[in-house]
TrEMBL record:
Highest taxon of source: Bacteria
Protein name: Uncharacterized protein
Organism: Aequorivita aquimaris
UniProt xrefs under Pfam families: TPR_10 (PF13374), TPR_12 (PF13424)
Keyword field contains Transmembrane: yes
Length: 515
């Protein structure tokens, strides 16, 4: 709806001989803005703004701020636009007459209208209209009354809207462009008021007059209203014709979305579901394009703002005393660089020394740890070998005793019994366990005590088994030491792991390594 509102850019003529240059620059900036060269326009306006501020030229300052706001309005950066309009409004209130005041009030109203803040839009349009009425400016009264009518149409206050529009049209007879927009607003009011006949008649008279590209949006919107009216009259063919005429490649994305949404609804009503779905897909694509367009506009606005900030900084820098500041800057910079170099050099040397010391200490510590690990591994391996040898010896002795017992003629002889008793004493099963744990504790300081402290439910056999695991012995080696089968050894490992609260047996060795 942006194009349906009348926007004032304040194209002026030079009136004061002392300010012709500023007036010309402002006109150049406005022309650049109409060509969408916003960076160039804002650069010129910023230059004039600075001159006007320095000279105390309030009218020129008002014009620059108002047109800076207009640039940001066209870039859809409404926040920045409003900020500049409010600054222009303050200047108009303080130093200028009501002519400038009502212009910027109208522009602020348009901003709020675009943000769909209809209450604020009405307030500012009404202020502008009141000032125009006070000044008996018939053209401005008609212009602001049209904007009021559009805002009140959107707000659903149709009677109030019609009252303003009926006041506006007689005042705009000599201003054809604004009059056409006022007539469209009145036709829209008729349609929203369910006065289909009046709306149809007004639109049929109006649309043939909307021949220029300036009124492309009003023409498309009017044809869309005629299509809706035809649909309400059950004249489907006419509704389709008007909707087809409304389509134009120059239409805004918002208008195209409204048209294709209407076509989708129209075909759905006629049970042409495939075509309705096709139009619905087009609506989705157009909405996505609109989103990207708004994002692009915002990016362009930010880029322009960034360029303007840089330009403002450059202008400020040019006003300074270059030579004096440069000398001071060079002297200060040289001193700072020298101090920084000294600090960096000192810090670097200290850092290198600390780093070297740290590396040496880490290497020494690593060597020491490797030596200790190697020594511990050797002791554990020796202890394991001794345990295995003892186990093998006991196995051999047990086999000998068992073989003797199985031979009845030998086992009954006193001399043989005597030797069997001696062999049984040599087996030393219990003592081997105790000796192993004692030697293991001496080699691995604190391991067994920490293990018993954390897991008090472990018995001696469990601790012995875990000691073998800690020594990184295989299942086969452990089963040989314990005189059990490898399967029995695995089951014992699972049982002990559960006893210790571990989910998997694979977690046993890493867990034991960190005790």
């Amino acid at each position: 709806m942006k194009s349906l509102l009348i926007f004032l850019f304040l194209i002026i003529n030079a009136q004061e001989e002392t300010r012709p240059e500023c007036d010309i620059l402002i006109q150049q900036a406005i022309e650049a803005m109409h060509q969408n060269k916003h960076a160039k326009s804002l650069e010129i306006l910023t230059k004039v703004q600075k001159i006007a501020q320095e000279k105390g030229w309030h009218k020129e300052l008002f014009l620059t701020l108002n047109n800076i706001g207009a640039n940001y309005y066209k870039l859809s950066d409404y926040g920045e636009a409003l900020e500049n309009y409010l600054l222009a409004y303050d200047i108009a209130l303080s130093y200028l007459d009501t002519t400038q005041e009502m212009v910027v009030l109208n522009n602020i109203g348009i901003l709020f209208y675009q943000e769909n803040n209809l209450g604020e839009a009405e307030k500012y349009f009404l202020k502008a209209y009141t000032l125009a009425h006070k000044n008996t400016d018939s053209f401005k009264m008609g212009l602001y009354a049209v904007n009021l009518g559009l805002a009140l149409n959107s707000a659903g206050r149709l009677e109030d809207a019609r009252a303003y529009l009926q006041k506006a049209l007689p005042l705009l007879q000599n201003h054809q462009n604004v009059l056409l927009q006022g007539r469209y607003a009145l036709a829209e009011n008729y349609y929203l008021s369910d006065e289909q006949k009046n709306a149809k008649e007004e639109l049929l008279r109006l649309i043939p007059e909307l021949t220029t590209l300036e009124f492309i949006e009003q023409k498309a919107s009017g044809l869309l209203l005629l299509s809706k009216i035809a649909l309400s009259e059950a004249n489907i063919k006419k509704a389709e014709e008007f909707a087809a005429l409304a389509q134009n490649p120059h239409n805004s994305l918002d208008t195209q979305i409204n048209i294709f949404q209407h076509l989708s609804n129209l075909n759905y009503r006629e049970k042409k579901y495939e075509l309705a779905s096709k139009y619905k897909d087009t609506v989705i694509i157009l909405k996505d394009s609109l989103y990207h367009l708004k994002s692009s506009s915002q990016f362009e606005a930010n880029r322009v703002k960034f360029a303007m900030r840089n330009y403002e900084i450059e202008m400020i820098e040019k006003t300074k005393n270059y030579e004096a500041e440069r000398k001071m800057l060079y002297a200060s910079f040289s001193a700072i660089v020298f101090i920084i170099l000294v600090i960096v050099w000192t810090w670097r040397n200290a850092h290198i020394r600390d780093k070297q010391k740290k590396i040496i200490a880490e290497r020494n510590q690593k060597i020491k740890m490797l030596e200790l690990e190697s020594e511990l591994e050797a002791k554990n391996r020796t202890l394991a070998v001794k345990a295995l040898n003892m186990s093998n010896r006991n196995e051999v002795l047990q086999e000998v005793v068992q073989n003797i017992k199985e031979q009845v003629d030998l086992s009954n002889k006193p001399e043989v019994r005597k030797y069997v008793a001696i062999l049984n004493k040599q087996i030393k099963k219990d003592k081997t366990k105790d000796d192993f744990l004692i030697h293991f504790e001496e080699t691995n300081h604190g391991f067994l005590s920490s293990l018993r402290e954390k897991h008090q439910n472990l018995n001696v056999n469990d601790i012995r088994f875990l000691s073998y695991l800690y020594m990184n012995l295989s299942i086969k080696e452990i089963s040989s030491l314990l005189n059990i089968t490898p399967d029995a050894c695995r089951k014992r490992k699972e049982r002990i792991a559960k006893k210790m609260g571990l989910q998997e047996t694979a977690e046993l060795f890493p867990y034991l390594s960190h005790i």
